[in-house]
Write a structure and sequence with these properties.
By secondary structure, the chain is α/β, with parallel strands linked by helices. It is built from 8 helices and 6 strands, in the order αβααβαβαβαβαβα. α4 packs across α5, α5 packs across α6 and α6 runs parallel beside α7.
Amino acid sequence: CVCVCCLKLELQKRACRSTGLSFNWCDIEKTPGQYNWTYVDWTVSQVAQNNLVPFAYSGNTPDWALDATNKGLGYRFPPLPQYMTNFSNFFTMLAARYKGKVQYYEFWNEQNGCGWTQPGCANSNQAGAYAPYLCAWYKAMKAGNPDAVLSVGGLDYNEQVTQGYQYIEDLYTHGAQDCFDAVAIHPYGTMDPGHELHWQAINDTFNVLQKHGDSHKPIIVGEYGWNTNDESKKSANLNVVLQQLKATYTQVWSLVSSHLGSLSLSL
């Protein structure tokens, strides 16, 4: 979730245009059929007041829709089959409630890494298990807001993940091509100069989309950063990344606008 009041001056100083939001099903519908929208209504209003474009995470299954052994693990486990009607109803309601206020959503988070059902973060080959839920979510959200732009949940795609594109490829294999409008990735880099962002992740993701005729689908760079307490280094790295993103965006847009489609980078 986002505390916009705390960040308002910093956002204005940095001329930020977008921010993340979290719509956790487990927080909003703690009891089946009973919804508490108070906090998320407030965050959406604060985002609007600060003229920010939100990119919203959605997911996180409530305990009542999970197996008893998975209570408290809704960030990893989707609902049991008997609760798929509840699942669809919730996400249709969510999309309809914020129509005109929130347009960009993702479903789940790092489901190819630690955010899905297999132990030890061993989920890189689990796209086939994720795809049916992605498609059910997509259908439900579009029923609530046909104009929503719906993204594959942000993929763990740091520099140690060399074949993250295979997860996207597997989504196509399992029939999910029409179940997403965009792909979100988390291309964390390192502290080494020239590796501040995992650029190959962006290139490889685009190549898969292009292969399947989906080069028009945006790639959303939704999360990155550096594990250091050196704030000056963080600032320097951020400046490098923002400059490179701007340069890369211009370069790739110029290339794809005449040949392939468009690649969008969301900061």
